[in-house]
Design goal:
The complex is a heterodimer of chains A (about 325) and B (about 325). In chain A, the strands form two sheets. In chain A, strands 1-2-3-7-6 form a five-stranded parallel sheet, with helices on both faces. Chain A has a two-stranded antiparallel ribbon with strand order 4-5. In chain A, helix 1 packs across helix 2 and helix 2 packs parallel to helix 9. The longest helix of chain A is centred in the first third of the chain and has 26 residues. Chain A is α/β, with parallel strands linked by helices. Chain A is globular, with a radius of gyration of 19 Å. Chain A contains 13 helices and seven strands. Chain B folds into two domains: about 180 residues, 3-Layer(aba) Sandwich (Rossmann fold), CATH 3.40.50; about 130 residues, Rossmann fold (3-Layer(aba) Sandwich), CATH 3.40.50. Helix content of chain B is about 40%, strand content about 20%. In chain B, the strands form three sheets. In chain B, strands 3-2-4-5-7-6-12 form a seven-stranded mixed sheet, with helices on both faces. In chain B, strands 9-11-10-13-14 form a five-stranded mixed sheet, with helices on both faces. In chain B, strands 1-8 form a two-stranded antiparallel sheet. In chain B, strand 6, helix 7 and strand 7 form a beta-alpha-beta unit. The N and C termini of chain B lie far apart (about 40 Å). Classes of the chains: A alpha/beta (about 325), B alpha/beta (about 325). At the A-B interface, helix 5 and helix 6 of A face helix 3, helix 4 and helix 5 of B.
Chain lengths: ~325, ~325
C-alpha cells in the first residue's frame, strides 16, 4: 500500500474531525441544545474513515448511521452534519431529516438507514447498475454487527454473490448491538464464517489500526473492482459511548471502556505518522487546531442560523413527485 | 387495434419499453425462461437476454431493494412480486425507502421504479395467494398505485408506469390475465396516471369499482338496465393519485354512490372514496353512501366459500335497488 503524505494526513484529519464532532455532539445532546438524539462513533474512527479512505470519488458509499468518519472521508463537510444536528437550513438536508438520513447524490453517498439492513439491499442496486453499465465503479455498504442479523442483509449478501455484484459489505463489529454483547447475538466467532456461507471472500481487519483497515480494503477493492464479485470485510472495533444519546451505557464494566481507550486509534495513528517520519508533531497539532476551530465555527453558526422556511418547504418539489 | 388478453397487453407494454429504453430492465422470481408465474413475461428473456430480464433468488427484499438502488442510478427497473400477498415482505423497501429517497437526497434523485404484482381472487388459491392489499399502501406518501381492469388500460398504464419518474405499485388482477380480452391500441399507447375512466354512463347511481369488480359492476348494470335502473360505472384505474373530479362530477349528477372492491371492507379503498364524496359532494347525496367489499375475514379455499367471499353482481343489483327505494 503506497499512500502519499497528503492522503495519510487527510485520513488523520477526518479521524480527528470525527472525534471532535462526536465529542461536541455529546455535549450538545447533554445540554439539550440539539434535537433528536445522537449515535456516537467515538472509538470507531479508524474503522469508519479507513473503510472509505481508498474509495474513488465515483464509487458509492452506503454507510451505517454511525459513520460520520466515512461521510467526511467521502466529502461531506462539518457544516453539512452540524447544521443537521440543529435541524437548520444550513444542514445537508435543510431540516428535512436527522443525521441518520443523509445522502449526497453528487458525492455518491447513499443514505444510511435506521431501518437496519435496508441499506444493504439498496446498495446492491447501485452495484447492479454499475455492472450493467460495464463500469468498474464499486459500492461500499457499511453496517454494524447488530444490523448484520437482519433478514435484508442475508438476502443482500446472497443476491450480490449470485449476481457477482461489485460491492463490499463491511461490518463494523463494535462488540455491542445497542446493549447486547456479541456472544448473545452470534454463534459464529468471525464474520468470515458468514462470508463462507455466501460463497464470497471474507477479510478481517484490526479496526483500531487505520493502516490495517486500509490495507485490507485495498485487497478487497482489488478483488471487487476486478469483476470477481462481492467481498465481506469485518473490522474489529469498539464503541466508547452508548448506542445513542439516551443510552446510559451501564451494561458493560466501565473498566472495559477504559481498556479500549488506552488503544485510542487516533493517538495510535498519530504516533505511527510521527515515528516513521511522515510528519512532525507540530503538523498534526496544526491539523487538530484547525479541525477544532472548524467544528466550533459550525456549531456557533448553526445555533443562530435560521430553520428552513415553512412555506418554501411545503412548496419544494422534493415533497412532490418528480416530473 | 389488436385483440389481446390482459396478460398479453401487459407483456406488449413491457416489450416495447425494453426495446425503447436500454435503462429498462425486468427483475423477479422465475420471470426468465419460465416466463413468470402467470406467463406475463414469457418470451422476453429470449428476446432481450438475461441482463435485461433478470431471474433472482427468492428474496423479495433483495429484489425490490436492488431496484430502488438501481433506479437511483438512472435505471428503470420493473419488479415482479409474484403474488401481492408477498408485498408485505418487501413493504419496507416500497414504503420507507423508494418513496423517501428523493426527500432525503433532494431533487437530483429520482426513483423510477415499477413494482408489478398479481393480486386478487378467482384463482382458487385461498389466502396468501389471493389477497388485495392495495389499501395497505394507500397511506404511503409518494407512492403511485395503479390497478387496471381491461387489456387496453393494462397496456396504457404499464407504459405510463415505466415512464414515470416515481415509484409505482402496479396491481394486476390474476383472474383477469387470461379470462379477459379486448381491443388494445397497437404501438405506443400511454394512459396518463391519475385519470379515471367512465366504463359505462348512467343516471341513477355512481358505482366506483376496481379491477375484477369493474366487470361485475358492468354485468349488474346491464341487467339493471332492463329494470329501468341506470348505473354509471367508474373505474379510477389510478387509485393514487385519484381522479377525484371524475368521481365527484358523477356523484353530483346521480346523487348516489356505491363502491365495490374485492379487498376487505375496513379501511379499504372504498372508504377513501366515500370519505372524499361526503367531504366534497355531501349536498349532492340523496342517500347514504354504500360500500360493497369482502368481509373482514380470511379468504377461504372451498370454491363455494370463495364465491361467497367477494362482492357479486347480484349483491350490487340488490344494493342498487335498495338505494333507489
Amino acid at each position: 500500500m503506497d499512500l502519499s503524505k497528503e492522503k495519510l494526513l487527510e485520513v488523520y484529519r477526518h479521524m480527528y474531525q470525527t472525534r471532535v464532532f462526536e465529542q461536541e455532539c455529546e455535549k450538545l445532546n447533554k445540554n439539550k441544545e440539539i434535537l433528536g438524539s445522537i449515535h456516537g462513533s467515538m472509538g470507531e474512527e479508524a474503522t469508519s474513515v479507513g473503510l472509505a479512505a481508498l474509495l474513488r470519488p465515483d464509487d458509492v458509499l452506503s454507510p451505517s448511521y454511525r459513520d460520520p468518519g466515512a461521510l467526511f472521508m467521502k466529502g461531506l463537510t462539518t457544516m453539512d452534519l452540524v447544521g443537521m444536528l440543529f435541524a437548520k437550513d444550513c444542514g445537508k438536508t435543510k431540516g428535512r431529516t436527522r443525521v441518520l438520513h443523509v445522502g449526497d447524490f453528487r458525492k455518491n453517498i447513499y443514505p444510511p438507514n435506521p431501518i437496519l439492513g435496508a441499506s444493504s439491499v439498496i446498495a446492491n442496486g447501485a452495484a447492479l447498475a454499475f455492472k450493467m453499465n460495464g463500469s468498474d465503479r464499486i459500492v461500499l455498504n457499511i453496517m454494524g454487527d447488530g444490523a448484520s442479523n437482519e433478514g435484508a442483509v442475508h438476502e443482500a449478501m446472497n443476491f450480490a454473490a449470485v449476481k457477482n455484484l461489485p460491492i463490499i459489505f463491511a461490518i463494523e463489529n463494535n462488540a455491542y448491538a445497542w446493549s447486547t454483547p456479541f456472544k448473545n447475538n452470534f454463534k459464529i466467532h468471525t464474520f468470515i464464517e458468514r462470508a463462507i456461507g455466501y460463497g464470497i471472500p471474507g477479510f478481517i481487519a484490526d479496526g483500531y489500526d487505520v493502516m490495517d483497515v486500509m490495507q485490507v480494503m485495498e485487497e478487497a477493492i482489488a478483488h471487487v473492482r476486478g469483476g470477481r464479485g462481492p467481498a465481506l470485510v469485518e473490522c474489529r472495533t469498539y464503541r466508547w459511548s452508548g448506542h445513542s444519546g439516551n443510552d446510559k451505557n451501564v451494561y458493560r464494566p466501565w473498566e472495559e471502556i477504559v481498556r479500549w481507550k488506552q488503544n485510542c486509534p487516533i493517538a495510535r495513528f498519530g504516533g505511527y505518522l510521527t515515528n516513521v517520519g511522515i510528519c512532525s508533531d507540530e503538523e498534526l497539532a496544526a491539523i487538530r487546531t484547525e479541525v477544532e476551530q472548524e467544528v466550533q465555527d459550525a456549531i456557533e453558526y448553526s445555533k443562530t442560523a435560521p430553520y428552513p422556511d415553512c412555506g418554501e418547504f411545503f412548496r419544494d418539489d422534493v415533497m412532490l413527485a418528480a416530473e | 387495434m389488436e385483440n389481446m388478453t390482459y396478460a398479453e397487453a401487459l407483456r406488449a407494454s413491457m416489450r416495447e419499453a425494453l426495446a425503447e429504453d436500454e435503462n429498462v430492465f425486468l427483475i423477479g422470481e422465475d420471470i426468465g425462461k419460465y416466463g413468470g408465474c402467470y406467463g406475463v413475461t414469457a418470451g422476453l428473456v429470449e428476446e432481450f437476454g438475461e441482463d435485461r430480464v433478470i431471474d433472482t433468488p427468492i428474496s423479495e427484499l433483495a429484489i425490490t431493494g436492488a431496484s430502488v438502488g438501481a433506479a437511483m442510478q438512472g435505471k428503470r427497473p420493473v419488479v415482479e412480486i409474484m403474488y401481492a400477498d408477498f408485498l408485505t415482505v418487501a413493504a419496507d423497501q416500497i414504503i420507507n425507502q423508494a418513496c423517501k429517497m428523493r426527500y432525503i437526497m433532494g431533487k437530483e434523485v429520482k426513483v423510477p421504479l415499477v413494482v408489478r404484482t398479481a393480486y386478487g381472487g378467482g384463482g382458487r388459491y385461498s389466502f396468501n395467494h389471493s389477497q388485495s392489499p392495495e389499501a395497505m399502501f394507500m397511506n404511503a406518501p409518494g407512492l403511485t398505485i395503479l390497478m387496471p381492469s381491461t387489456p387496453a388500460d393494462a397496456k396504457g398504464l404499464m407504459t405510463a408506469a415505466i415512464r414515470s419518474n416515481n415509484p409505482v405499485l402496479f396491481f394486476e388482477q390474476k383472474y383477469l390475465y387470461k379470462t379477459v380480452s379486448g381491443p388494445v391500441p397497437e404501438g405506443d399507447y400511454e394512459i396518463p396516471i391519475g385519470k379515471g375512466d367512465v366504463k359505462r354512463e348512467g343516471q341513477d347511481i355512481t358505482v366506483v369499482a376496481t379491477g375484477w369488480m369493474v366487470h361485475r359492476a358492468l354485468e349488474a348494470a346491464k341487467r339493471l338496465e332492463q329494470e329501468g335502473i341506470s348505473l354509471e360505472v367508474i373505474d379510477p384505474r389510478t387509485l393514487k393519485p385519484l381522479d377525484e373530479e371524475l368521481i365527484l362530477s358523477s356523484v353530483r349528477k346521480t346523487g348516489r354512490l356505491i363502491t365495490m372492491h374485492e379487498a376487505s371492507l375496513t379501511g379499504g379503498f372504498g372508504a377513501e372514496i366515500c370519505a372524499i364524496v361526503t367531504e366534497k359532494a355531501f349536498d349532492s347525496l340523496k342517500k347514504p353512501v354504500c360500500r360493497l367489499a369482502a368481509p373482514d375475514s380470511i379468504i377461504p379455499f372451498a370454491p363455494n366459500l370463495e364465491d361467497q367471499y367477494y362482492p357479486t353482481a347480484v349483491e350490487l343489483e340488490a344494493a342498487a335497488r335498495e338505494m333507489l327505494q
